[in-house]
Amino acid sequence: MVEYTSLKANYEMFAAEYEEAALRALRSGWYILGPELEKFEKDFASYLGVKHCVGLNSGTDALILAVRALGIGPGDEVIVPAGTYIASVLGITENGADPVYVDSLPDTLLMDMDKVEAAITPRTKAIIVVHLYGQACNMTRLKEIAKKHNLPIIEDCAQCHGSTWDGKMTGTEGTISCFSYYPTKPLGALGDAGAICTNDDELADKVTMLRNYGSRVKYHNESIGRNSRLDEVQAAALSVGLKHLDECNDIRIKIAKKYLEGIRNPKVQLPVTDEHATNVFHLFPVIVDDQEAFQKFLLDNDVKTAVHYPIPPFLAECYEGTIAGPADGKALFPNAYHIATHEVSLPIYSGMSEKDVETVIEAVNKY
Fold first, then answer.
1. Environment class of 33 (CB within 10 Å of its CB; exposed 0-12, middle 13-18, buried 19+)
2. SS3 214
3. Largest CA distance in the chain
4. Which DSSP string do the residues of 32-51 spell out, in sequence order?
5. How many angstroms separate the CA atoms of 267 and 181, rounded?
6. Are residues 56 and 183 in the same domain?
7. For 121, phi and psi rounded to 5 degrees?
8. Is residue 2 a part of any domain in this protein?
9. pLDDT per position as a tens digit, 71-117
């Protein structure tokens, strides 16, 4: 059976380094806001080419604190892709602001930049762009729109560590960028973890304060913050992963290339990467005629798959009856809805064997 993913396989590639790093952090006796975090923040900022990286406890908290640091709250609107994971929207609604959705492109499956400007209103205070599945979005077009309307850009980089647009690293062109280090991500921790990156000194200072109860000095709480600190053990593990990030990205890119060259089935729409973008293939999403039938067929042929994301945020139960969940969302965002109801992700991960890759190709072609 070909597993959809294997965290163990990835871990075993660098097991000795992970174990040494974890033991180093454990033996130090310093577990919160210590030297391991400081080193990782410095190294990840250097990897991206930005001034600041602030380690947090999750990518979701990164989105929440990014919106909060920009001073966005009740009565404000934030533009966000209709096709994304709900965390992108939670960053908005957790601050009392309203999401305004923009439909997806049918080929790259990313936000349609040609529809962004029409979504801007006098209440718009920011644009969240999501580099979904590992591919960089069209930052050239988005920056033109944002500059014209004087709006900050929040980059959701939860799935794109190391991807680029026109040679520029994702997470470096917006006002502030949010990273998830969930274990399955291109750069994954051994649990939940995240970060915010920015070139803005003031925003970095605000986020550093917000992640620690809104406090710069103990017991002096300037803002309503939260406990969102990246611990030392996770920071140590991430330093190991960062050393091998490009190597692991290359492994997935090579697997993706084999899929793109080997899969020849007219019932299966393969992912498209824009010529200006690079794609680190956090996921390998295909569009099929029938999600359930396709998944069952592949499972019957010893291949496990996953779906991302079957219920788009604008149809989420938690937003029913609110501006975040329009009743006619299917009609308003037809591409995002079609992707949600027809997308299936094929196995792709560092540590995946060539034999398993060939098994997947054979099964997909037989469908």
1. middle
2. coil
3. 64
4. BSSHHHHHHHHHHHHHHT-S
5. 34
6. yes
7. -130, 175
8. no
9. 999 999 999 999 999 999 999 999 999 999 999 999 999 999 999 99
